[in-house]
Each structure stands twice: as structure tokens, then as C-alpha cells.
Specification:
197 residues, alpha+beta, six-stranded antiparallel sheet, five-stranded antiparallel sheet
């Protein structure tokens, strides 16, 4: 005998069926409107654009340095947090290299930083040390700078946080000496400011 009421199960099924029909209609409308349109390409953000435009410059060798330490080409780049150098020394002889210095200048050369490493008695390079150049004794600063020579490639990196005023523009030069008193001094880079955010 019918009581004129709908079971609880039926009350749940009916709205669900109506929802499914509505979903099919909406999907159909969207396909008709945008089916032929290609998805928009993602646009480069300011962050990715800035990352590809880190200020950099090329350095040239002196042209008269001994072959064992002569620089053919070098590039310096200023990132947001680190200053890096990469140099090519085609005829490098590590046994003849005495010291490697990356010079960083600020305020038109009034402030001069020296990141230096040299070979110890065992033939290994010490961890690069950072100094603030002064008229008397240079002042040493704690810094986790790095230097690596692999094949003919020399690379150095300096965290900008090591400097007193890391936001200031920088100029750079690479200097290398050999055990016979020979010296290589590259050209000085143009002034490199911090990347724009």
C-alpha cells in the first residue's frame, strides 16, 4: 500500500541525477565555446626575466703572460647572492701556478677586496681567503669563497654577503702569478650593479 512518501534512498538519487545532467550541459557549452582555441602560453614572470639578465662582462688576458698562466678569455657575472668568474687558460700548468687572486673594487676603486688562494708545500690550493686591501696590513674577513681548476677551466665564486656593502656595484679583475715570478693581469670589467628584481 502506498503511503504517498518517497523513501530516503530515492530522495538522494533524484538530485544526483539532476546534477549529472547539468554537468553534461555545462561541459557541452564549454566545448562549443572554446574547443577551437589553443591554450594561452605561459608568460615569463619578472623573476625569470631578471634571472636571465644577470649583469656580466668579459675580461681579456694581458697578452704577455707566461703560457702556463695565460688567460685566453674570462667572464664575470653578478648574481643576486654570488659573484662568479669563469676563465679559460688553454696551456695552464697547475704545477707552475703560485697564486690566484680575484680583485673586486667598489666606489671607483676606493674599496678593494682580494679573494686569494695559493698552493701550499704539498701542491694543493688552500681555501680562498677574503681580504679588504688597506695601506697597512690587509684585513681578513670570514667568507666561504670557492675556487676550482678542472682541465683548462678556472672558476671562482664569492658570496656577496661576505662584503661589507654587498649592494654596491662591483668591478673585477683576475690576477695569477707563477712560481718563476711571472704574472697575468686581465682587463678590468665594467661596473656591475645588482640584478634588478
Amino acid at each position: 500500500m502506498s503511503t504517498g512518501t518517497t523513501s530516503g534512498r530515492n530522495r538522494l538519487v533524484v538530485p544526483a541525477a539532476a546534477g549529472a545532467i547539468l554537468l553534461v550541459v555545462i561541459v557541452g557549452i564549454l566545448l562549443v565555446r572554446g574547443g577551437d582555441e589553443a591554450p594561452a602560453e605561459p608568460k615569463a614572470t619578472k623573476a625569470t626575466t631578471a634571472a636571465t639578465k644577470a649583469p656580466q662582462d668579459k675580461l681579456t688576458g694581458s697578452g704577455d703572460a707566461p703560457d702556463a698562466i695565460a688567460v685566453k678569455t674570462a667572464t664575470v657575472a653578478r648574481g643576486a647572492t654570488v659573484f662568479e668568474l669563469g676563465a679559460e687558460l688553454p696551456d695552464i700548468d697547475i704545477k707552475k701556478v703560485d697564486s690566484v687572486n680575484l680583485m673586486l673594487g667598489q666606489d671607483g676603486g676606493k674599496i678593494l677586496w682580494r679573494v686569494t688562494t695559493f698552493q701550499d708545500a704539498r701542491g694543493g690550493f688552500i681555501i680562498p681567503q677574503l681580504y679588504l686591501v688597506k695601506d697597512g696590513d690587509d684585513e681578513q674577513f670570514a667568507c666561504s669563497a670557492g675556487m676550482r681548476i678542472r682541465g683548462s677551466q678556472l672558476r671562482m665564486s664569492v658570496p656577496l654577503a661576505c662584503l661589507d656593502n654587498p649592494e654596491k656595484p662591483l668591478r673585477a679583475r683576475l690576477e695569477i702569478t707563477d712560481r718563476d715570478g711571472g704574472e697575468e693581469k686581465t682587463s678590468t670589467s665594467r661596473t656591475l650593479s645588482a640584478p634588478k628584481p
